[in-house]
Amino acid sequence: MGTGHGHGTSHAGSTHRWRLVAAFVMVAAFFGVELIVGILSGSLALISDAGHMAADVVALGAALVATKIASRPDSTGRRTYGSYRAEIFASGFTVLIMLGVSAYVIVEAIARRGGEGDVAAGPMLIVGGIGLLINVVSIFLLRGGAEDSLNVKGAYYEVVADAAGSVGVIAAGVLVVLTGDSWWDTVVALAIGIFVAVRAVMLGRQVLAVLGQHVPEGMVVDQVVADLTAIDGVADVHDLHAWTLTSGMNVATAHLVLTAAADPQAVLASAQKVLREEHRVEHATLQVESSPTKECLERAW
């Protein structure tokens, strides 16, 4: 017996799509300027930040495509959960881009170690300041949806890292002006690369947890079992599985063994309410039975 299917409900990524559009337009418009100035000024910090901004453009574009795909109804009959997971794959793609950019910057910074090079600090300061302004605006736009959607959170992390990169570019420009030593440009670029890598690993762990169908973040399975068992008419709970389909969409399945006098419909309604209100599970497929079946007792997973 199933409860709580509601496939027509708008998901988090689709709700916050306008935030991704606004951030994408601003970041894409500025990327070319930063790259050209970085090449002309000889600044690795500026080039690395432009590279990261290019990653932002690709990541934001992928996120926009994913939210569009995720919001489409399934016309094939083969995707019973719809295409919501497209957002998670887009987040994974963002992780790969961030790791690639950070690897390039770190390798390039190491290659420049001990080398000489002239860096034009003026353009670094101007472009870094403009980039920081754009990133701060994008942060405020994306922060509103980062807690609801892993897809938006990936874009948010990208922009936060980019803002740190812009701060680094400004700091490098100031240090080059004060000391006359272009080595500071390489140091800051290395720091940006490491920061981006750490952010990518953090997001990557969340993506893998969803793809691996781990228990939703913050959920304790033993507590879910205890809450369901405490429902009037439930004698036992087994075959409980819970996972995250996509951001803001937790699902679960379970078998409920009923007492002799239990009302199955009343138990199902109560179980659905407990899962929804206490454990943020909107979609639950529940089976009621008078005693565990042979298949339940023999199943090892």
UniProtKB/TrEMBL annotation:
GO molecular function: zinc ion transmembrane transporter activity
Localization, UniProt: Membrane
Subcellular location, principal: membrane
Record's bilayer topology term: Multi-pass membrane protein
Entry superkingdom: Bacteria
Domain annotation Cation efflux protein transmembrane: ranges: 20-211
InterPro entries cross-referenced by the UniProt entry: Cation_efflux, Cation_efflux_CTD, Cation_efflux_CTD_sf, Cation_efflux_TM, Cation_efflux_TMD_sf, CDF/SLC30A
Membrane-crossing segments per the record: 20-44, 50-67, 88-107, 119-142, 154-177, 183-202
UniProt-listed Pfam families: Cation_efflux (PF01545), ZT_dimer (PF16916)
Keywords: Ion transport, Membrane, Transmembrane, Transmembrane helix, Transport
Annotated ranges, domain Cation efflux protein cytoplasmic: 217-290
Family matches, as SUPFAM superfamilies: Cation efflux protein cytoplasmic domain-like, Cation efflux protein transmembrane domain-like
CC terms in the record's Gene Ontology section: plasma membrane
Xref: PANTHER family: CATION EFFLUX PROTEIN/ ZINC TRANSPORTER (PTHR11562), RE54080P-RELATED (PTHR11562:SF17)
Family as reported in the entry's similarity comment: Belongs to the cation diffusion facilitator (CDF) transporter (TC 2.A.4) family. SLC30A subfamily.
The name this protein goes by in its record: Cation transporter
